[in-house]
Each structure stands twice: as C-alpha cells, then as structure tokens.
Amino acid sequence: MKQVNIPDELYEAIEKKLEEYGFKTVDEYVTFVLREVLGSEEESESEVFSEEEEEIIKKRLRDLGYLD
User: Fold this and answer.
1) Is the pLDDT of residue 42 over 90?
2) Residue ranges per domain, the chain?
3) pLDDT greater than 80 at residue 55
4) Both ends of the chain: CA-CA distance in Å?
5) More confident residue, 60 or 45
6) Which of 10, 23, 37, 53 is buried most deeply by CB count within 10 Å?
C-alpha cells in the first residue's frame, strides 16, 4: 500500500467530520473521495445518451423546429 501526505489542518478537519460522514478513519474517507473523483472522470468520458436516446432527442428537436 502506498502513502500520500496531506496538510495537518486538512487531516484534522476530516478527522472532526468522520462520524458525520459515516467513516471510521481518515484513510477510509480519503480513499472513498478519490474513488468518487476518478469514477466521475470515467463517467464523463462515457456516452451520456445511447444512440437510440440520441435519435429520439433529435426527432423531438426537429419536431419543435430546432433542427433541420
């Protein structure tokens, strides 16, 4: 397992909120946050709509006169 250093004041701020956040340790919380951030990046790179959904949206926009 690798280690990462964070400023003392950040560690202490997280430590004060652990119970509120529902985590047992600062390591557990930081791991969760990093996974969320990395997962969000992966999600933003994936398609937002399927091809079928995209066609439905385009048809609606055409019907409303927004697309030719």
Assistant:
1) no
2) 8-63
3) yes
4) 56
5) 60
6) 23
